[in-house]
TrEMBL record:
Catalysed reactions, as listed in the record: gamma-L-glutamyl-L-cysteine + hercynine + O2 = gamma-L-glutamyl-hercynylcysteine S-oxide + H2O
Cofactor: Fe(2+)
Pathway in which this enzyme or protein is active: Amino-acid biosynthesis; ergothioneine biosynthesis
Organism: Winogradskya humida
Protein name: Hercynine oxygenase
Name of the coding gene: egtB
Function text: Catalyzes the oxidative sulfurization of hercynine (N-alpha,N-alpha,N-alpha-trimethyl-L-histidine) into hercynyl-gamma-L-glutamyl-L-cysteine sulfoxide, a step in the biosynthesis pathway of ergothioneine.
Domain DinB-like, first and last residues per copy: 10-141
Residue positions binding Fe cation: 47, 133, 137
């Protein structure tokens, strides 16, 4: 049984984060285009309200529209991010009022609806989907904050230190495991159904690739040697003029990065972030390894050799607590490798959840038996091989919006997201 108070609390927590991200800057900043690949923050704000209106107020609640006239403006498929500042968008003040009105109605719907009354409402799914949607846009808004120029406006304590240095790799034995889920109540359509997948034995790094390791790749001339890159990757490296992760700059004989408006020396033991799939792949090839496939990543994260079961999270079935993973924008940086020993998987793989999204070498397709629910535009329209998968969530992902089965995807050239990676390699002889 889904507890309505818990659903209400999750909606409220998402809204507090949206408010924090949109009140941190002034109105001029909210309507500004900080990057052609991002929406103005005020678009994300009203879009969050519009999705909530469509699904909770109109669909689940069967209520009259709050603002039918703005659906087109906030349909992500109608206008590209680049074009959104030129639209007659709601002003910041109107957007705040709109999302408040929608929320009041959605809470009323939650109060009255039977959570076993329809497939959409079952287990609070529609509400969970909207909580995740808002949290996903909050992470997108956090990425926009990272691209924004000017004085810092966001504050958070530094992440925890490593309790021990985590390096090296872990052997994942050959065999079948259960990938995806039939039981996770708020899992999205692309995480379903649960299905058995055979995975050959492989080694996976116990921690994500760090800044120090990545700096070694740069120092070894990794950006100038086409043989480390795929053909498409090299073409992109040339065309985009890539020489280091986004936001890195030379600092004497080392490197610094700018994070949310503050510039500092890179921290060597911290997972590298803001790399595209092609950079991740080139690093892995240089290191004599490769990226894990999506089934390999999920097996490393969920498979419990003692029981043969797949867990909800690497540490077990309990939802993330602060001791398990660096999630939810509690910190504005990934934590050093070894900072979350309590979040390790049974096989001893660390920091799979939180810190940085991890690129895996798999294209985005539906699992065998995939069935679209409740709308094609969540995932189905992205199937087909244009997108690479990312797993595990970042420091900017909320606990409500990630789990062992969660699948994220993006174009392989993207790096404004909080994207890193870890390496793997075959263990054919084991
Ligand atoms: C799952 C993160 C790729 O932000 O593009 C937000 C989530 N879908 N609104 C995205 C999403 C519709 C999506 N990702
Ligand atoms: Fe959206």
């Amino acid at each position: 049984m889904t507890d309505k108070n818990k659903v209400a609390a999750e909606l409220e927590r998402a809204r507090q984060r949206t408010v924090l991200l949109t009140e941190a800057v002034d109105d001029a900043d909210l309507v500004r285009q900080h990057s052609p690949i991002m929406s103005p923050l005020v678009w994300d704000l009203a879009h969050v309200g519009n999705q909530e209106e469509l699904w909770l107020v109109r669909d689940v609640g069967g209520r009259e529209p709050v603002r039918r006239d703005i659906d087109e403006l906030y349909d992500a498929f109608k206008h590209s991010r680049r074009d959104r500042t030129a639209l007659p968008l709601l002003s910041p003040q109107e957007a705040r009022k709109y999302v408040g009105q929608v929320r009041d109605k959605a809470m009323d719907v939650l109060d009255r609806v039977r959570l076993d009354g329809s497939r959409l409402a079952a287990d609070g799914f529609a509400f969970g989907m909207i909580v995740q949607h808002e949290q996903q846009h909050d992470e997108t808004m956090l990425a926009t904050h990272q691209l924004r120029l000017g004085a810092p406006v966001l504050e958070a304590p530094a992440p925890p230190q490593a309790t021990s240095k985590i390096t090296g790799e872990v052997l994942v034995p050959a065999g079948s495991f259960t990938m995806g889920t039939d039981t996770e109540p708020w899992a999205l359509d692309n995480e379903r159904p649960a299905h058995a997948v055979h995975v050959d034995a492989f080694y996976i790094d116990a921690a994500p690739t760090t800044n120090g390791e990545y700096a070694d790749f740069i120092a070894a001339g990794g950006y100038d040697e086409p043989s480390w890159w795929s053909e498409r990757g090299w073409a992109h490296r040339q065309e985009a003029g890539l020489t280091a992760p986004q936001h890195w700059q030379r600092d004497g004989d080392g490197w610094a990065y700018t994070r949310f408006g503050r510039t500092q020396r890179i921290i060597d033991d911290e997972p590298v972030v803001h790399v595209c799939f092609f950079e991740a792949q080139a690093y892995a090839t240089w290191a004599g390894k490769r990226l894990p496939t999506e089934p390999e990543w999920e097996k490393a994260a969920r498979f419990d050799p003692a029981t043969g079961r797949s867990r909800r999270y690497p540490w077990g079935d309990e939802p993330p607590e602060t001791r398990h993973a660096n999630l939810g924008q509690r910190h504005l940086a990934p934590a050093p490798a070894g900072a979350y020993p309590e979040g390790a998987s049974p096989l001893g793989v660390h920091q799979l959840i939180g810190d940085v999204w991890e690129w895996v070498d798999s294209d985005f397709y539906g699992y065998p038996g995939f069935s679209m629910f409740p709308y094609e535009e969540y995932s189905q329209v992205f199937f087909g091989g244009d997108y690479k998968i990312l797993r595990g969530g970042s420091f900017g992902t909320d606990a409500a919006a990630v789990r062992g089965t969660f699948r994220n995807w993006d174009h392989p050239i993207r790096r404004q997201i909080f994207s890193g990676f870890r390496c793997a390699r075959d263990a054919a002889d084991v």
